Amino acid sequence: MSATLTAPQLRIGPLALDVPVVLAPMAGITNTAFRRLCREYGAGLYVSEMITSRALVERTPASLRLIKHHESETPRSIQLYGVDPATVAEAVRFLVDQDLADHIDLNFGCPVPKVTRKGGGSALPWKTDLFRAIVEQAVRAAGAIPLTIKMRKGIDADHLTYLEAARAAEGAGVAAIALHGRTANEFYSGQADWASIATLKEAITSVPVLGNGDIWSASDAIRMVRETGCDGVVVGRGCLGRPWLFGDLAAAFRAEAGEIGWDEAFAATAKPALGFVMAAMRRHAELLVEFFDGEEDRACRDIRKHVAWYFKGYGVGGDTRRSLAMVESLAQMDEIFATMDASLPYPGEDAEGPRGRAGSPKRTVLPDGWLTSRTSDGVDFGELAEAERDDSGG
C-alpha cells in the first residue's frame, strides 16, 4: 500500500494535531521535563510515562508526580495501564473529574516481564473478554475526552491478537489505535513488521491508525506512512538523546503535505554540531531540576542515563563521557562542557540509526495457564491486581 498525505493534521477525537506525530510513553524517560524539551523543537502529541491505574486511584505520591503537566503542555496526554476494568475506569474518571488530561491512552503493548507476568501490557489482549471490558468501561468513563489504545501484534507469531483487539476497540468507541509492529516475544529486536500496520489500516476504517516501530529519522516516518497508509506515527527510542527529531518530523510532514518544499524541509533537518547537543542536554537538565522541585542532585542523577544517547557518534572521549555519566550538579556539567570542542561537526551516519537497548527475542513471561483459553474464566484477579499497585511508570 502507498499513500500521500493531503494535510499534515491528525485528528484524535476533538483534538487536532498540527503534525501526525506522537511521542511514545517510555518509562523513566517521558516525564514532564523530556516532554517539554521535545515540544520546544517540534509539534504533535506528547504522552506521559505509563501510570498504573490502582496507584493513581490510591493517589500514591509517585503516580501523582508522573501525571503532572506544565502549564505550557497542551494537549495534556496520559497513558494508563491496568488489568481490572473497574480500577482502570476509576482511574480514568479521576483524570476526567479533576481535569488532569485532554487525552488518555491505554497500554496494551508493554513487553517487560514484571507487567506481562501479571497479565498486563501485551499479554492482556489474549483474554478477549477482559480486553473488551477494560476498553468499553474506560471509554464510558472518559466521556468527551478521547481515549486511545497502544498495542503490539500479539504475544508471539502463534498468538497474534492485534486485529481482533483493534476491531473490539473500534467497536467500543476509541478515538485512535496505535500498533507497534512487533510481538511481545520480539521485544525490540530485529525489524518492526510494518506490513502488520498496513493490514491493520485496511481493517480499521472509522478511526486513525498510528504506526510505531523503527522510526529513527523523519525519512523513516514518511516512508512508514507511504508504505502502510497509516494516519500518523508514534516515535519512541528514535528520539532518545535527540529531542530535535520532532522538528525534523514537523518539517518532513509539512513537505509531504505540500506546505513547504522538500529542499526547505531538508534544510530544516537538524545536523547539530557538538555545541548544539550540549545546549540540548543542558536544557534537559534544567527542566529536570524544575520537575524534581529544585532537587538538582536528583535531576543530575536522572540526566546521566541520557549521556550515551546525546553523544552517540560524536568524538567525545571516554573520560569525558564517564565524567558526564557521574555528574552531580549543573555547575559541574558546565565545567565538563567547557573542556569540549563545541565546534565539532555533526558526525553523520554514526549519530543516526537505532538507539536504546534492542534486547533479543525471548519467551514472554505470562501467568500460569494464560494461553489455554481466550477468556478470563479462572483467572486469579487478586493476583493480577498486584500489577496495578506498581507506581514506577512501567
Give a quick summary of the entry.
It is globular, with a radius of gyration of 21 Å. Helices cover 39% and strands 12% of the residues. It is built from 17 helices and ten strands.
Main beta sheet strand tally, sense and closure: 8 strands, parallel, barrel
Query: Which spans have pLDDT < 50 for at least 5 consecutive residues?
Result: 1-7
Please report which band the strand proportion falls in: under 5%, 5-15%, 15-25%, 25-35%, 35-45% or over 45%. Answer: 5-15%
Task: Give the quaternary arrangement of the chains.
Answer: single chain
How far the N terminus sits from the C terminus, by CA atoms, comes to 34 Å
> Over the alpha carbons, how many angstroms does the gyration radius reach?
21 Å
Number of domains: 2
CATH top level of the largest domain is Alpha Beta
Helix content: 25-40%
Number of beta-strand segments: 10
- According to CATH, what is the topology of the largest domain? TIM Barrel
CATH structural architecture of the largest domain: Alpha-Beta Barrel
| Structure annotation, total helices | 17
Structural class: alpha/beta
Can you walk me through this structure?
Helix 1 packs across helix 12 and helix 10 packs antiparallel against helix 11. The protein has two domains: 260 residues, TIM Barrel (Alpha-Beta Barrel); 75 residues. Helices cover 39% and strands 12% of the residues. The radius of gyration is 21 Å and the shape is globular. The chain is built from 17 helices and ten strands. The protein is an alpha/beta fold. Strands 3-4-5-6-7-8-9-10 form an eight-stranded parallel β-barrel, surrounded by seven helices. A two-stranded antiparallel ribbon has the order 1-2.
